[in-house]
Design goal:
Helix content: 25-40%
Number of helices: 11
Structural class: alpha/beta
Order of helices and strands: EHEHHEEEHEEEEHEHEHEHEEHHH
CATH topology of the largest domain: Isopropylmalate Dehydrogenase
CATH superfamily of the largest domain: Isopropylmalate Dehydrogenase
Radius of gyration: 20 Å
Number of domains: 2
Strand order of the largest sheet: 2-1-3-14-13-6-7-12-10-11
Strand content: 15-25%
Mean pLDDT: 94
Shape: globular
Oligomer: single chain
CATH architecture of the largest domain: 3-Layer(aba) Sandwich
Number of strands: 14
């Protein structure tokens, strides 16, 4: 039995996370849930959007299922954390969002985003089935930016060989384990010759250890063009943090949008699984939210802990509900609510 930290989150988070937990339990997964509070509710009740108890719970359980959390745009909003090192030294850090804070504090070095067509989900494309691996710890997202004067700001892009190789190796191992055959490295080394040049070289060096997997590369703008012309030609994509963030959302649009796209953040010690869509506060509590992305994130969690049989049962049940197109939510062309969608998946297990 594995214990999983559950973070319901904001907006529609409690609804879609609740649906996912109900399905996981109904499918017979050997897991139990420990719920913690983060986000707007935590900020109102506890004075901080990310209590240390949330991080400590995930570190203890090593697994988390996280709903969407809301972060203000612009301004000087920061998540401030005060922790102590193993030697008792005070460590004060701040982050621009809960998601980034969790990825950094838990050392979740790679973001994994499967992108796949499902029956009954409207898309301009068919036969799309790829996985995106996004290096999760550096690039422009280290937050090293400053105002030079009132009219000028700068940000520092950081790429290291170690972080790149770690993400690349995870990607190759994932492809090998799942029977995939090709990894494409995305970069802008023709312009950013030092940073993206290092990302490209380090990734290609790792590729030499995986002769059974084809490895090629694309300049990022060319990749984006090819993704909307022939997305079915790609198998796995490896990108640095910022490009990975952008391209993974673009790719979700190929198969129906963020409402059908799951996500995982993986580290050596912990893993966090979350839908990649927002908290959608305008529809919260109305029983109309689509839980599909969260359900598929739960499927990724179960596969991560070697409960693939249960994961396959859930994905098959979800696929049958989508194909029947009877009890799906409005964004998928149906008239059902979150609860009826969830019940239909459980009935199809």
């Amino acid at each position: 039995m594995r214990r999983v930290t559950v973070v319901p989150g904001d907006g529609i988070g409690p609804e879609v996370v609740g649906a996912t937990c109900a399905i996981i339990k109904a499918a017979g997964a050997q897991v139990e849930f420990e719920e913690v509070v983060a986000g707007l509710r935590a900020e109102h009740e506890l004075g901080t959007a990310l209590p240390l108890s949330v991080i400590e719970s995930i570190e203890r359980n090593r697994l988390a299922l996280k709903g969407p959390t809301q972060t203000p745009f612009g301004g000087d909003y920061r998540i401030r954390l005060k922790r102590k090192s193993a030697t008792g030294e005070a460590l004060d850090r701040d982050y621009p969002s809960i998601a980034i804070a969790l990825r950094k504090e838990l050392k979740l070095f790679v973001n994994v985003r499967p992108i796949k067509n499902y029956p009954g989900v409207t898309s301009r494309y068919s036969n799309v089935n790829l996985v995106i691996f996004r290096e999760n710890s550096e690039d422009l997202y280290v937050g090293a930016e400053r105002m030079i004067d009132d009219n000028t700001a700068e940000a520092i892009k950081i790429i290291t060989r170690g972080a790149t190789e770690r993400a690349a190796r995870y990607g190759f191992e994932y492809l090998r384990k799942t029977g995939r055959k090709k990894l494409t490295i995305a970069h802008k080394a023709n312009v950013m010759k030092m940073t993206d040049g290092l990302f490209l070289r380090a990734s290609q060096d790792v590729a030499k250890d995986y002769p059974d997997i084809v490895c090629d590369a694309r300049v990022i703008d060319a990749l984006c063009m090819e993704l909307v012309i022939k997305p079915e030609s790609f198998d796995g994509l490896l990108l640095a943090n910022l490009f990975g963030d952008i391209v993974s959302d673009l790719a979700a649009g190929l198969v129906g949008g963020l409402g059908v796209a799951p996500g995982a953040n993986i580290g050596d010690d912990c893993a966090m699984f979350e839908a990649v869509h927002g908290s959608a506060p305008d529809i919260a509590g109305k029983d109309i939210a689509n839980p599909m992305a969260m359900i598929l994130s739960g499927v990724l969690l179960l596969r991560h802990i070697d409960q693939a049989v249960v994961a396959d049962r859930i994905e098959s049940a979800l696929t049958r509900v989508l194909a029947a197109n009877k009890y799906v939510t409005r964004d998928l062309g149906g008239q059902s609510g979150t609860e009826r969608f969830t019940a239909a998946v459980i009935e199809n297990l």
